[in-house]
Amino acid sequence: MTILDRLTGLAFPAAVLRRAILLADSGKAAEAFPLMAKAARAGIVDAEYRVARCYLEGAGVPPSRMEGARWLLRAANHGSADAQALLAALYVTGLVTAEADGKGPSEHLFKPDSPGKPDFTAAFDFATKAAGAGSATGQAILGYILTSGPASMRDADAAHRWYEKSASAGCAEGCLGFALSLARRGKRENRVRIAEEVRRAADAGLPTATYLLAVLTEHGLGVARDMAAAAQLYQAAAEKGLPSAQFRLGLALIDGALVGQDVSAGEAWMRRAALAGNIEAAYLLGDRSVKTQRPDFAEAANWYRRAAEAGHQAAARALASLYLTGNGVAEDVEEGARWLRSSANGGNQQAQTDLANLILGGAGEPDDGASVAGWFEAAASSGDLIAAFNLGLCFAKGVGVRQDEGQAAHWLRRAAEGVAEAQYMYARLLQDGRGVAADPAQARVWFARAADAGVLDARVALAEMLLNGRGGTPEPEAAMQLFEQAAANGHAGAMFALGALYGAGHGLPVDQTAAQKWYAAAAGHGHSQAQLMLGRYLLKGLAGERDPVTARLWLERAAAHGISEAADELGAAGGSN
């Protein structure tokens, strides 16, 4: 600072401020700041506001949000509408706390600046003052508070009026707010005006407005539909760092929806969006990593985790799946359950079902059962058939509720109107008389519905009823067809049943070779009774082929599964050798 500046400052604070402004405008912020500070300490309101801006922007002085807020408060209390508007904005974003007046605890001086919770009450006070003094920025901020603040402060009509005043004064934020307020009114005749206001805000450089103009241009809302122009607008907003625009541009380049397809460039924009906090971009990157020809599960886990930690329910469920299967991460049932729980608690019904299945399998925490039952009861009561099915399972197994077969039957019957597995399970209850009166005829009807829907166990159960005539007339040929269908789809029980039918007849031609073939098929699928029968066939040569060594192996397998007859026959075979 020159001697002239010091002497001038003692007598003419306004002159000091003018000198400071000249220095600042010529890029000499470090020289300008001491002069501005002198003028501010002399009580010149404009100087107080400028000093605040210097602290907030780090112009000529180390940045300090707290010092900036303190000087803003002085200027605002001295009537500066600009200071009032800026202070309102800082309160709304949580960048100013109650300690802004410098009267807070001294330890705050040594804490790094970090956003706190919005203070809408303080923001409303200063925005109202600024708006009343004619500040277009203050009017826009007041409109925002009246639109998006606490419910007790909201007043859509008042917000609309303040946005309109701000837009009339040429404030970009006011133009954007006014356009959004018009859009919320839902009148088609406002579309052109909405587009005009959004364009004014976009022309003033607001990235959000540029993005919204791109959306309007892509869909032809209030403006001519132009895909190339929309792509350019998305790119302009993306280059200004707006994550939503980066995401949309990335998606368009991957899909080729707006301009020529460029997957590499699209994924690059998608990654920028994800790293900037767009959780949908992170989730889709995870999905793309999983669904490529050579899946990269570790990469997928990283993106899913980023989205899941930010609250994306589908990403949390996908991450849980990776932990439960050990793909891309170390297998960890507890961690998988934790992420499923997070997704389920957020309302994701698929995650609720997955967690229920996990709990029914014995995993999860003690409190999970009650949560799962509660989710399913609420959804089932409103008509969700999948939820009704799962609630029926909860009652059947006592998960989160007292075991109650009557309630299980009630909910499974509801679910049976559209869920094939529920049809099968309800038929089982009717067949056995559990939770409902035994009704073989109705059991047969519900087994048939489930069988037609492709439930293999239902086909086998229906075949057994058709074979023995329970619930209706015997139909052995139809039973044979159902057993063959289920066996062709890998059902070991159906394979065993075919072996028994061909071996004993039951009204059908006896064919011991076919019987041994089906026993062998079922035995290979781990069916212990089939292992016993195959051992007998090979030991006695019932189908013409005698093989005591292989027979002994199958009998040993059956005995290992607890089949006492197999152990007896092994003993007899040993004694006869």
Automatic annotation (TrEMBL):
This is SEL1-like repeat protein. SUPFAM superfamilies: HCP-like. It comes from the Bacteria. Pfam families: Sel1 (PF08238). The lineage of its organism: Bacteria, Pseudomonadati, Pseudomonadota, Alphaproteobacteria, Hyphomicrobiales. PANTHER family: ERAD-ASSOCIATED E3 UBIQUITIN-PROTEIN LIGASE COMPONENT HRD3 (PTHR11102:SF160), SEL-1-LIKE PROTEIN (PTHR11102). InterPro entries: Sel1-like (IPR006597), Sel1_AlgK (IPR050767), TPR-like_helical_dom_sf (IPR011990).
